[in-house]
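Researcher: Let's do a round of design. I'm pasting the structure tokens now; please hold your answer until I've finished.
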């Protein structure tokens, strides 16, 4: 009877929880990648390594940076925050994806930076939910771009999410200020 490696590992590691592989922190994962990259270069010379060996950090949904750079640490924001930020940016008028990202970055004084890999899936999700609509148009540099605007249901969703956010931040502030 053939059993796959995953089945073997599950059966044996389940019995010995101390032998389970631990989750690596970002720093440990980066060091592991550097070690693999050095091993690849020593074995194959200066050939181009696989792209997986070149990535050292993980990316979060929304990257938030303080005034001082702190070892590329990123802040996890509560779920739904990206939707709220996008809805608010689009409420100011039709914008294409890059302009939405830049507007949020500018208004937050570069504290909030939305990677494209998070922005565009969020825009498509909001469009599927009917909170924003999209039309093709020409951007400032005369390139074809998809412009997003808030719908009526999106405006009411923005109001509901903004109220919920204000309630949450007020409650957290009360807890932080307790003596």
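Researcher: That's everything. Go ahead.
Model: Designed sequence:
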């Amino acid at each position: 009877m053939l059993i796959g490696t995953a089945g073997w590992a599950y059966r044996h590691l389940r019995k010995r929880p101390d032998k389970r592989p631990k989750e690596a922190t970002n720093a440990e994962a980066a060091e592991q990648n550097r070690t693999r990259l050095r091993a690849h270069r020593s074995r194959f010379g200066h050939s181009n390594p696989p792209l997986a060996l070149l990535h050292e950090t993980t990316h979060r949904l929304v990257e938030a940076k303080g005034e001082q750079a702190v070892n590329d640490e990123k802040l996890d924001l509560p779920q739904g925050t990206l939707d709220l930020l996008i809805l608010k940016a689009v409420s100011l008028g039709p914008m294409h994806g890059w302009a939405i990202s830049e507007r949020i970055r500018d208004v937050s004084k570069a504290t909030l930076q939305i990677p494209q890999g998070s922005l565009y899936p969020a825009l498509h999700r909001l469009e599927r939910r009917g909170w924003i609509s999209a039309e093709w148009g020409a951007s400032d540099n005369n390139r074809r771009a998809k412009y997003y605007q808030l719908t009526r249901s999106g405006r009411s969703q923005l109001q509901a999410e903004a109220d919920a956010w204000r309630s949450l931040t007020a409650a957290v502030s009360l807890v932080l200020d307790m003596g």
